């Protein structure tokens, strides 16, 4: 716990220093593309602390001054699989973003979609000595949370207080300065596989980049795709990526659950390539321009030409109907949505007041996927595009860039987390996380 707490505090301080210098980069490491955006923080409101309870919570004015994307290499299911290939891809996209921005960046905030995230709900309570809540009291009540057994090889990625209660008053976001006798907190803990995080951090270090933060893609995609009312009333964001499908649930503007389905658009492309006996690049192109999940009477007449280079003229000049293509794509998309529904049911999503579901990510661009999702999920479903941020290129305004735009919002408007507070050394949980994140201590 001590190693984890201090390493996360070091990254938060590094982020604060980068924001004070005015420039920081965000890096979305996906399975199909790697996106990098360079942010410049402007105005006197930089690092203002008015909302939330953490020293970094607040609003910061920023704009995107450089952006670049490249084809992902060495990444599978949202995790680093080939270190050297991933390093070359990250170096390429960061250098392109720096060239577009006309400025060098040393600090990056990264997000990843894999690593098998798991959510836990924690609770803690303490009596107040002076009857007035101070920041030290918040640190003590966070330290009083009973830590679960997260298992060997797991690390804590996010630890956010989502609700405070003072005596009989609940739903407080910032209890500092209020008077009471008993303070309690509900906290959401998100853990991931240690090896996946270590591989990504090691890859970024080999690229001569300082890591100023790391986040879950499911979390940041929800920040970008859900509007304020949806985050407040209780909504879910399903980020349909290439290698993994992220699921996040928000309530009262905080993430209360996150998980990942280890399937995505890449499997749909592979199904097309195997079903039609064509190369993967051609299958991806056909999926993009002709794909869908609902067949109509007109689709039997729409013929899609297939080209190959086998030397057999009949095989190289085939045509298939769009109905046949939809028959290949629909079962896999249904499987992804069925798995997402199982995760939502396990999280108790049906008990939330809003029950709005927002689809985002590149997979949500398949025509008809929103209607199919509404039938499978049995809820109100809409397609979500990332919120507009100043300076964002038009090409990065689509649903496929929800995680990258959400990472910009995560960098500029950070929510308070466990490591933002001075936890007393004698109150580190005795049973929890003693072995966590030794990699930081050895390499930072």
UniProtKB/TrEMBL annotation:
Keywords: Cell cycle, Cell division, Cell membrane, Membrane. The keyword Heme does not apply. Residues 24-225 form the SHS2 domain. SMART domains: FtsA. CDD domains: ASKHA_NBD_FtsA. One of its GO terms (biological process) is FtsZ-dependent cytokinesis. It is a peripheral membrane protein. GO terms for cellular component: cell division site; cytoplasmic side of plasma membrane. It is found in: Cell membrane. Its main location: membrane. Transmembrane segments: none annotated. InterPro entries: ATPase_NBD, Cell_div_FtsA, FtsA/MreB, SHS2_FtsA. Belongs to the FtsA/MreB family. Cell division protein that is involved in the assembly of the Z ring. May serve as a membrane anchor for the Z ring. Self-interacts. Interacts with FtsZ. HAMAP family: FtsA. This is Cell division protein FtsA.
